[in-house]
C-alpha cells in the first residue's frame, strides 16, 4: 500500500498558516505525522466496516433512472446472479432490462418512483411487462449498505420503550416504529399527517381482537418472500408467521391486510 510522504499531506489553510509562523519545524512535522497516521487509521476503519459484497452494491448505481434508461448501459446479469433468490429467470430479467428504453416513463425523478412505475406497468391481460427486472430493482434498492440503520432503530426503540412504558407489546412497538420512519421518509410529522380513507377503515372494533399468539412478547419470525404477491393495489413484501404484510403504494404505510 502506498502512503504519501508527510510533506505532501495538506492539512487545510488554517493549520498551514499557523505552522508557517512557528520556529520549531520538528514539532510541526510531528503533528503532521500524527495527523497522517490518524487519517490512515480512519481509512482502515472505514474500509473494515464496509460490507463484504461492496463490489455488488457499487453496481447498484445502474438502477438510477439516468443509467437504467440509457441506450449505452451495462448488463444487469451480475446483480441478477447475486440475487437469484429474487431473480429466478435471469434471461427474462436481462431481456426486460434491455427493453426498458423502448418505452417513455413519466416518473424518472428518483429510483423508487421509476421502479414502482415500471412494476405497475401492465398489458391488456393485466400481466406485468417488466415484472422480473422491477422486482429485482425494488428488492436490491431496499438493502441496507451498513448496519447504521439497524443501530439507529435500536436507539429509537430505547427512546420509545422507556421504564414508564415497559409493558408495550412487540406489536405496538413495531407499529410505532413503522409510523415514525414512514412519516420521516415522507417529510411529515404527527401534526401534518392526514390519514387516508384506507387507514381510517382500519380503526374499528376488530383492532381490539388480539389473540394471545399475536400478543406474545417475542417478535414475529420474518420470512422474506422470493416473489411479491400482488393483491389489487397492494404489494406483499414480507411474510410474518404465514400472514402477508402489505405496502400500500398510495399511502406508503406498512399495515397488515
Structure description:
With 257 residues, the protein is of the alpha+beta class. The chain has 3 domains: 6-48; 54-141, no CATH class; 148-255, no CATH class. The chain has helices spanning 12-20, 25-48, 54-58, 65-68, 77-82, 90-98, 111-120, 131-141, 148-160, 170-185, 197-201, and strands at 222-231, 234-240, 245-248, 254-255. Strands 1-2-3-4 form a 4-stranded antiparallel β-sheet. The chain is extended and about 80 Å long.
Short descriptors:
257 residues, disordered C terminus, 3 domains, 11 helices, HAT C-terminal dimerisation domain-containing protein, single chain, extended, RNaseH-like_sf, alpha+beta, four-stranded antiparallel β-sheet, 44% helix
Q: Specify the helix fraction band.
A: 40-55%
C-alpha Rg (nearest Å): 25 Å
Count the domains: 3
Strand order of the largest sheet: 1-2-3-4
Shape: extended
**How would a crystallographer describe the biggest sheet?**
4 strands, antiparallel
Structural class: alpha+beta
Q: What is the N-to-C succession of helices and strands?
A: HHHHHHHHHHHEEEE
The count of β-strands is 4
Helix count?
11
Instruction: Give the DSSP E fraction (strand runs of 2 or more residues).
Output: 5-15%
Uncertain segments are 213-257
Overall mean confidence score, pLDDT: 77
What is the first-to-last residue Cα distance?
55 Å
Protein name: HAT C-terminal dimerisation domain-containing protein
Organism: Acipenser ruthenus
InterPro entries: RNaseH-like_sf
Amino acid at each position: 500500500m502506498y502512503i504519501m510522504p508527510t510533506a505532501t499531506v495538506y492539512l487545510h489553510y488554517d493549520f498551514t498558516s499557523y505552522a508557517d509562523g512557528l520556529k520549531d519545524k520538528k514539532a510541526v512535522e510531528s503533528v503532521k505525522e500524527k495527523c497522517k497516521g490518524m487519517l490512515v487509521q480512519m481509512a482502515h476503519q472505514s474500509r473494515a466496516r464496509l460490507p463484504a459484497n461492496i463490489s455488488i452494491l457499487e453496481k447498484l448505481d445502474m438502477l438510477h433512472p439516468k443509467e437504467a434508461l440509457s441506450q449505452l448501459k451495462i448488463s444487469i446479469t451480475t446483480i441478477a446472479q447475486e440475487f437469484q433468490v429474487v431473480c429466478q429467470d435471469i434471461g427474462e430479467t436481462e431481456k426486460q432490462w434491455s427493453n426498458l428504453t423502448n418505452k417513455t416513463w413519466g416518473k424518472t425523478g428518483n429510483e423508487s418512483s421509476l421502479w414502482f412505475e415500471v412494476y405497475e406497468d401492465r398489458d391488456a391481460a393485466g400481466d406485468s411487462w417488466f415484472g422480473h427486472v422491477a422486482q429485482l430493482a425494488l428488492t436490491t434498492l431496499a438493502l441496507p449498505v451498513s448496519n447504521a440503520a439497524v443501530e439507529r432503530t435500536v436507539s429509537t426503540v430505547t427512546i420509545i420503550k422507556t421504564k414508564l412504558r415497559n409493558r408495550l407489546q412487540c406489536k405496538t412497538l413495531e407499529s410505532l416504529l413503522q409510523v415514525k420512519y414512514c412519516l420521516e421518509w415522507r417529510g411529515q410529522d404527527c401534526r401534518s399527517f392526514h390519514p387516508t380513507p384506507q387507514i381510517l377503515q382500519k380503526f374499528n372494533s376488530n383492532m381490539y381482537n388480539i389473540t394471545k399468539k399475536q400478543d406474545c412478547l417475542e417478535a414475529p419470525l420474518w420470512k422474506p418472500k422470493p416473489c411479491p404477491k400482488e393483491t389489487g393495489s397492494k404489494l406483499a413484501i414480507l411474510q410474518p408467521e404465514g400472514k402477508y404484510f402489505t405496502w400500500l403504494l398510495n399511502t406508503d404505510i406498512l399495515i397488515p391486510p
